[in-house]
Design brief:
The chain is α+β, with helices and mostly antiparallel strands. 41% of the residues lie in helices and 21% in strands. The protein has 11 helices and 19 strands. It is elongated and about 85 Å long. Bound molecules: zinc ion (ZN). Zinc ion (ZN) binds next to loops.
């Protein structure tokens, strides 16, 4: 009896939470569905339907120009040539090589940034050739992030073709070095932060969006011992022993699901030869959480384990911090105009219950760190990113482009 009562209470609480959420969302869904019904918006969607083959061809061509981080110039030149044909007020490169295009509004609206990153994770010189099999297109980089580069280009053409004018300015940014250092977005945000109202990073996430950045700390931990030959008496052990013990204990740590927290030990190393006890045995830790307190907490817990295992083996421990990126969460952002509008756009495009999460790890994190309202979402259903098997469902890019168009106009607002 008591159990069923508590389940009932939980259910009531859940329903009233959902009801509260629906009430908050309602004005945005009403606005977005009215916008989607406008003749000009329909005409921009028709443009996408009429140009499916051209979109697929261009998407393929851009993907086949490999652009490893730091080597984006050739791809950028190709994109620039396309932009020169559109109705844009300004096309330029900034100091680090981001390609930026301004579609000026009629006035009185916000400045809205859409970005996609030009760089890929594949090595220079890799020959890329896309293949299509049964509605799926395969090519390294086809999804991450070329689907979104193409979505931005096609969306500008569609807005032009449908004579859509927005009140706010749309600033399109094709960034460099997202996959490595965020050098591109950091420069862009530094140069423009005073004028940006909304920032949308198009990267991943076909269904749903992220509105917070997960914090990421990378470490390399070393156990340092005297080393020696396999048969030497002292020390009794290789530095790999405390390493093994420590790894096992770290993996026994309970990680909360909420706030989302993850860790991974992906690399390790020891002696250079089989017949030597390691004097330096090391491993990496990739620690992630949307809570900076939890990042600190787990950093300390891991440090304690390392210290204990080093002492137990009579060795010392040395920690290198490879990088630290704090979590980026804006207070009240879940109910902001940007997040609620983007959620309403998702629903309008047929995703009934889009996942809205705070675990983003892309250019939007950098904007959020500067206090700029930012989200990330994407324009197609793709898988196996960062691998040679990367692929996308072709059909989904067309809906994805329409989603991007609707989001652009909903945020910058249609001008009569
Ligand atoms: Zn990406």
């Amino acid at each position: 009896m008591k159990k069923s009562l508590s389940i009932l209470l939980l259910l009531v609480a859940f329903i009233s939470m959902r009801a509260q959420d629906t009430t908050k969302l309602a004005p945005y869904t009403a606005q977005v569905s009215a916008l989607a019904a406008e003749a000009q918006m329909k005409s921009s969607f028709d443009f996408v339907d009429r140009n499916r083959d051209a979109i697929l061809r261009e998407w393929t061509t851009i993907t086949e120009i490999n652009a490893p981080s730091g080597h984006e110039q050739e791809r950028a030149k190709y994109i620039e040539k396309l932009l020169r044909k559109y109705k844009l007020q300004k096309i330029y490169y900034d100091a680090v090589g981001n390609l930026i295009a301004l579609r000026k509004g009629t006035g009185g609206g916000p400045t809205v940034v859409f970005d996609s990153h030009m760089d890929t994770v594949f090595q220079p010189g890799l020959k890329i050739k896309a293949t299509v099999r049964g509605g799926t297109i395969y090519a390294p980089g086809i999804g991450d992030d070329t689907r979104n580069v193409e979505a931005m280009l096609a969306s500008i053409r569609a807005l032009d073709a449908a004579h859509v004018k927005t009140k706010g300015d749309l600033l399109f940014v094709f960034t460099v070095e997202e996959e490595t250092t965020f050098k591109g977005v950091k420069q862009f945000v530094q140069d423009n932060k005073s004028k940006i109202n909304y920032y949308v990073a198009l990267d991943g996430g076909y269904e749903g969006l992220t509105y917070g950045g997960i914090g990421i700390n990378w470490y390399r931990h070393h156990f340092i011992g005297p080393g020696g030959h396999t048969r030497s008496r002292t020390p009794p052990y290789s530095a790999t022993l405390p390493l093994a013990r420590a790894i096992e204990r770290i993996y026994e740590l309970k990680l909360p699901e909420n706030p989302p927290t993850n860790l991974n030990i992906g690399m390790l190393g020891g002696s250079q030869v089989v017949n030597a006890k390691a004097s330096d045995a090391w491993f990496t830790v990739d620690l992630r959480s949307t809570s900076n307190e939890l990042l600190d907490d787990y950093e300390h817990r891991i440090a304690r384990i390392l210290q204990e295992e080093a002492e137990r083996a009579g060795m010392t421990v040395k920690t290198e911090v490879i990088s630290r990126t704090p979590a980026a969460i804006l207070p009240g952002h879940r109910d902001s105009t940007l997040v609620r509008t983007a959620e309403a756009v998702q629903i309008q495009m047929g995703f009934t219950n889009p996942p809205v999460t705070i675990t983003g790890s892309n250019n939007s994190n950098v904007a959020l760190h500067e206090g700029i309202p930012a989200i990330s979402t994407g324009a197609g259903d793709c898988s196996a990113s960062h691998s040679l098997e990367e692929n996308c469902q072709i059909e989904t890019i067309y809906g994805g482009i329409k989603k991007v168009i609707l989001l652009e106009v909903a945020l910058a607002q249609l001008s009569p």
